[in-house]
Write a structure and sequence with these properties.
Blueprint lengths: L1 E5 L3 H13 L3 E5 L10 H4 L9 E4 L2 E4 L1 H12 L8 H31 L5 H24 L10 H10 L2 H5 L8 H11 L2 H8 L12 H7 L9
Parallel strand pairs: 1-2
Antiparallel strand pairs: 1-3, 3-4
The protein binds glutathione (GSH).
Length: about 230
């Protein structure tokens, strides 16, 4: 049975979708990041980066959401493109593009829009610009083909869904306006039974909702340490 360490945040949710799509048996284990549970020594032994998600599958431990998607797809032999170097090259490119660009820039856009104690116009503009630019690249790809890689729904689409369904949170209420093709894919995935089961997982556990001093200390370590 796969142990799945999760919260309701975007990166764990893409893994929840993937586990549900692949019909793999798993035990969801909540990690309440607003209570600082990601910093407990027993969790750091699983993910030294102190973030969710992570999985433990027998003697295999995997952290970082897109690495987990690839691990699960290879384990299940599902939701992967054709087994050719060309298709694998495309898969890895888009998987890394989502992991290294879409996720981090969206996360920073949300941070500077919602959480930064001061409104820093420069930072806000940079991260929203970059998040928007990355979504534009996904949208252009999806204007030409129904799914991100190959001609079938796969793990890159799941990775995209994790963050893209929250575009209005990162880019504001008109955030979808420029991305009709991306919206089509996100809506299609959200309508799947696996997506409903994945999002329902958030309600299985009562995660802390307040963003109080405890949450701030657990998640925004930079506010207590001067490095610049
Ligand atoms: N690169 C990592 C990022 C994971 C990440 O940032 N997770 C967030 C939730 S989406 C988290 O654990 N936040 C808690 C914290 O920053 O303390 C991945 O893709 O899994």
């Amino acid at each position: 049975m796969i142990k799945f360490y999760y919260s309701g945040a975007p990166n764990p949710m893409k893994v929840a979708l993937c586990l549900e799509e692949m019909d793999l048996a798993y035990e969801p284990i909540p990690v309440d990041t607003r209570k600082g549970e990601q910093h407990k020594p027993e969790y750091l032994a699983i993910n030294p980066n102190a973030k969710v998600p992570a999985i433990v599958d027998g003697d295999a431990t995997v952290f970082d959401s897109n690495a987990i998607l690839l691990y699960l797809a290879e384990k299940a032999g599902k939701f992967l493109p054709a087994n050719t170097l060309k298709a694998r090259g495309e898969l890895l490119s888009w998987l890394m593009f989502v992991a290294s660009g879409v996720g981090p820039f969206s996360g920073q856009a949300v941070h500077f829009r919602q959480y930064a104690p001061e409104k820093i116009e420069y930072a806000l503009n940079r991260y929203m610009y970059e998040a928007q630019r990355h979504y534009g690249i996904l949208d252009a790809r999806l204007a030409k083909q129904p799914y991100m890689v190959g001609d079938a729904y796969g793990i890159v689409d799941m990775a995209v869904w994790g963050w893209a369904r929250l575009i209005p949170v990162a880019l504001g209420e008109n955030g979808w306006a420029k991305f009709p093709n991306l919206k089509r894919l996100v809506d299609e995935i959200s309508a799947r039974a696996a997506a409903a089961r994945a999002t329902a997982l958030r309600d299985k556990h009562k995660f802390k909702t307040e963003f109080d001093e405890e949450a701030r200390r657990a998640m925004f370590g930079h506010m207590d340490v001067k490095v610049a």
